[in-house]
Design a protein that fits this description.
The complex is a heterodimer. Chain A is an all-alpha fold. Chain A has two domains: about 5-70, no CATH class; about 90-325, MetI-like (MetI-like fold), CATH 1.10.3720. Chain A is built from 15 helices and no strands. Chain A has helices at about 20-25, 30-35, 40-70, 90-95, 100-130, 135-150, 155-165, 170-175, 190-215, 220-225, 230-240, 245-260, 265-270, 275-285, 290-325. The longest helix of chain A has about 35 residues, at about 100-130. Chain B is mainly α. Chain B has one domain: MetI-like fold (Orthogonal Bundle), CATH 1.10.3720.10. Chain B is about 80% helix and about 0% strand. Chain B has helices spanning about 5-30, 50-55, 55-90, 95-110, 110-125, 130-155, 160-165, 170-200, 205-210, 215-225, 230-260. Classes of the chains: A mainly alpha, B mainly alpha. Chains A and B meet through helix 1, helix 3, helix 5, helix 6 and helix 7 of A and helix 1, helix 3, helix 4, helix 5 and helix 8 of B.
Chain lengths: ~325, ~260
């Protein structure tokens, strides 16, 4: 940390005192302000740290803590004059009724499937961009992929609806090719949700994979080839283990994001594909006294997702260490 | 690598390009269909849906509302995110790792959970659903992205530059304003555009924290639930063109920033 004392003496203004900066520094209230703020490195640090500390605790952590608290109360928002009672009832509802548990498991299965599918789809793309395309074209070809990902969730979901509808482009194409007589009902199924959510999350997998592969020197593969390893062995023994970190962060991001979608499953799914986000949202559309249950369900989902992510991360770390021994 | 393998990988890439572009292109085309019903084939074409956008007060007000929310929430995110980055990057202190984790937290909470947590917390703070609530939620959600982008830039600032400024007699504040801020400017600009896009595109937080006035994504969502018409295609196309243009523009800044640090 720097010594803040020298400016406080109000010494002669620096050279070029006629400029705006010189005027500012020569301005007495400014000098007093600097003297006050920068009196000691310690004070300077506390003034710098106070606001971020208050902000992250009250604004970043606060909502989560409050959600946790509300999930244990019997009514929220509280009617004035009534003390909220603490209860576990909201959690019991989840474990008592299969009606709530099924969407929960479905969400976990969906999110895992989407994550794996995204990985399988984007790995070859990242590999192609970093290994086969020349350095010159690489950024342009990556940029080309970025363009659709700047478009919002709802707009892209709508685009998928047009693609997969009964009068959609895919059905039209299949009919034109003579493969089908009647349109295939793609919409409102697990399939349409997959197409939509993979569309939304692919970039979060692609970018970590891309940077992991880009960092990996080509010479490693060449060395393995010189030692007689075939293409498959090279991939399994060299490329894959050394990009595990990218794979892990991509998978975690996509998993976290795909459990949180609400608009897309509502628009692309049907009654047989209700996800837990819709269940949670249901408690917030009706009367206020359902909020604690919604908070409890959200807490269950958040903690499950966090535990799964932590377990997965540990697993990937141990895998990485085991392989580089 | 053999030619066959190269071609196979290249096919993967172009198939992926088709996957991410074709839905949007089809959606744009559908806005030209001269019929009330969405669906292929398109037999006759019209510009009416697109021209109608500019006369529709509902769409224009939703658009203005979304833009206002995006700009105001971005301003807050930039100040807070930069502040957090300055603290975490420049100092070693007790709880630094916790600070870093907490700073990133809003970006890691799945969408629906973050939305309802904000909804509950807004009630605690006495924030009514509406514009301010959305701005507040978007601002918090975007802070981690600003902090990460600014920290990346800050770590490339040679320490010798700030030290030189101090040696020449500049006080810490002047050093910050004349050395650090100009250095961070490209990162701040890139982060701003990123935040504008995130806020403009956001659905779930706007949906749960909004009042009667819908943002553009919420309006499109509501229209879709009540039935599709090519008018939605026109609105959505408008949103696509706007976000893609802004994103491409932002890309220029980030790339300029990632180039070898200028003197």
């Amino acid at each position: 940390m720097r010594d803040g004392g020298d400016a406080s003496a109000g010494a002669e203004p620096p050279a070029g005192g006629a400029t705006g900066w010189g005027k500012l520094v020569g301005f007495a209230p400014y000098q007093a302000f600097v003297a006050l703020v920068c009196a000691s490195p310690r004070r300077q640090f506390f003034l710098l740290a106070a606001f971020p500390a208050i902000w992250v605790l009250s604004q970043h952590l606060g909502p989560i803590v409050q959600m946790l608290y509300v999930s244990f109360t019997d009514a929220y928002p509280v009617t004035s004059g009534v003390e909220p009672r603490l209860t576990l009832e909201n959690y019991r509802r989840f474990f008592d009724e299969a009606f709530y548990r099924v969407p929960f498991y479905r969400t976990l299965v969906f999110a895992t499937t989407f994550t794996l599918a995204t990985l399988v789809i984007t790995y070859p793309v990242a590999y192609f961009l970093t290994r086969i395309v020349s350095r010159r074209n690489r950024l342009l070809m990556l940029l080309l992929l970025l363009i659709p990902f700047w478009v919002g969730e709802i707009v892209r979901t709508f685009a998928i609806m047009i693609l997969l509808g009964n009068n959609g482009a895919v059905n039209l194409l299949l009919k034109w090719l003579g493969l089908i007589e009647r349109p295939i009902p793609f919409m409102y199924t697990g399939f349409s949700i997959s197409v939509g959510i993979i569309y939304l999350t692919a970039l979060y997998m692609l970018l970590p994979l891309y940077s992991a592969l880009e960092k990996l020197p080509r010479s490693y593969g060449e060395a393995a080839a010189d030692l007689g390893a075939g293409p498959f062995t090279r991939f399994r023994r060299v490329t894959l283990p050394l990009t595990l970190e990218g794979i892990a962060s991509g998978c975690i991001l996509v998993f976290l994001i795909s459990t949180g979608f609400y608009g897309t499953p509502v628009l692309l799914g049907g009654p047989s594909t209700t996800v837990f986000a819709e269940t949670i949202a249901g408690f917030f559309h009706v009367a206020g006294d359902e909020w604690p249950t919604g908070a409890a369900f959200a807490t269950i989902m958040f903690s499950t997702v966090l535990v799964l992510v932590l377990v997965f991360q540990r697993f990937m770390t141990s895998l990485r260490k085991g392989d580089t021994r | 690598m053999s030619r066959g393998v190269r071609v196979a990988f290249s096919c993967c890439y172009w198939a992926f390009v088709v996957y991410v572009f074709v839905p949007l292109v089809l959606m744009m085309l559908m806005g030209f269909k001269d019929s009330k019903f969405i669906g292929f084939p398109i037999k006759s074409w019209t510009l009416d849906w697109y021209l109608g956008l500019f006369g529709d007060a509902r769409i224009l007000s939703a658009f203005g509302y979304s833009v206002a929310i995006a700009v105001l929430s971005t301003l807050i995110s930039i100040v807070v995110g930069t502040w957090i980055a300055l603290l975490i990057d420049g100092h070693k202190f007790f709880g630094r790792a916790a600070m870093f984790g907490l700073a990133l937290l809003p970006a890691l909470v799945p969408g629906i959970i973050s939305a309802i947590a904000f909804r509950i917390y807004a009630r605690l703070l006495g924030i009514e659903p509406g514009m301010f609530a959305i701005i507040w939620a978007h601002a918090i959600h975007n802070v981690p992205f600003v902090a990460l982008i600014v920290m990346a830039r800050l770590s490339t600032l040679p320490r010798s530059q700030t030290e030189a400024a101090r040696d020449l007699g500049a006080d810490p504040l002047v050093t910050f304003l004349r050395i650090t801020v100009p250095w961070l400017l490209p990162a701040i600009l890139g982060a701003s555009i990123f935040c504008l896009l995130l806020s403009f595109d956001d659905f779930v937080r706007s949906f749960f924290l909004g009042g009667y006035q819908p943002t553009l994504p919420v309006l499109i969502f509501a229209e879709l639930r009540s039935g599709m018409s090519p008018e939605i295609n026109a609105i959505a196309t408008f949103a696509v063109v706007l976000t893609a243009a802004l994103g491409l523009w932002a890309e220029r800044f980030t790339r300029r920033m990632n180039r070898a640090p200028e003197r």
